[in-house]
Amino acid sequence: MSLLDHLRRRVATEGPLPVTDVMADALTHPRFGYYATRDPFGAAGDFVTAPEVSQMFGELIGLWAAVVWQQMGSPGHVHLVELGPGRGTLMADALRASRPVPGFHAALQVHLVEASRTLREIQERSLSGYASSWHDDVSGLPDGPVIVIANEFFDALPIAQLVRTGAGWHERRLAFDPQTDAPVWTLTPGISPLAALLHPTVLMGARPGEIAEVSPAALSVADLLARRLKRDGGAALVIDYGHGESAAGDTLQAVQAHKSVDVLATLGEADLTAHVDFAALARAVSQGGGLAHGPVTQGAFLSALGIAQRAHGLMAKATPEQARDIEAATVRLIDPGEMGTLFKVAAWTGPAAAPPPGFEA
Ligand code: SAH
What we know:
Blueprint: H1 3-14, E1 17-18, H2 19-28, H3 50-53, H4 55-71, E2 78-83, H5 89-98, H6 104-107, E3 108-113, H7 117-126, E4 132-135, E5 146-151, E6 160-165, E7 168-176, E8 183-187, H8 200-205, E9 211-214, H9 216-232, E10 234-243, E11 253-256, E12 259-261, E13 271-273, E14 276-277, H10 278-287, E15 291-297, H11 298-304, H12 307-316, H13 320-334, E16 343-349
Parallel strand pairs: 2-3, 2-5, 3-4, 5-10, 10-14
Antiparallel strand pairs: 1-7, 6-7, 6-9, 7-8, 10-16, 11-12, 11-13, 15-16
Helix pairs in contact: 4-5, 9-10, 12-13
The chain binds S-adenosyl-L-homocysteine.
């Protein structure tokens, strides 16, 4: 059975499926999910993420985490958590770079939140030198001060899509054409209660036909982390592509072999993501009692953390060919025409914490 057969069967018994269900099954279903069935990263896969572009990305984040720990007063125990660790590259680079910081590693417990069994095995190999534990979701993390890293995790959390008509907001759902049996989008006949989660500027400004998105799963992770950070202290670093202000628009996209492809035509075969609404997450964080810093652009964040200095340090010991690669990777990570501006970085803390590195006023 394929993901498409599975969705067809679900629609036959449950009726048209919300985009949240389609995205959840397409990405994390244990048998049919995109992440459950493959390692999609790197040149031979479907896409390349920042930690796979250069070791500098994870190294700078490891040092960021160590400084945050010092700002917390260097507690004797701290959970270092990564959400959606992919191949485990970021965490391995972060741990290697932060090892010299006195007392940091002795205080650390490493936790990975990962839905995919296939990727967990790869992460176990990347992190074989460290005592780490794996969790299915954020709610299973143990209590205590926490430093959370999430690179391209929130864009994989399911979104609902709402479509504006003359009557109001209807939810977009997946159905199958009775004639051709091909997947098609339909609308719920009634008005969707999810519209209550949309920001007033989106609610008021939209014209008929426009699409708005909301991710209940992302909002609940933000809320949970905010409560946690308020109670136990620490910080979360969220890096993703998305927008700083809530706005209408269809951002659901499928990527296969480094190209954007049709969502319905490639169900189960392509990565499915949506732009992260940083403003909506920031509102969830403040409602949960936390403070949201930023977002700043990835280019500005990595520059503030000293990527230029790190690149020079590495190039000094490199062959001419390696030096060119380091230079190219730096450009790719920070240039506005590459990942530098589309990717944003936000930090969340408890209400009393100092702004973390990269977010000072
Ligand atoms: N951070 C990595 C990988 C990004 S891809 C990098 O930058 O390279 C998204 C990651 O999140 C994958 O590891 C995927 O398996 C995981 N993931 C996606 N949805 C998830 C969910 N609902 N719960 C836990 N992990 C999830």
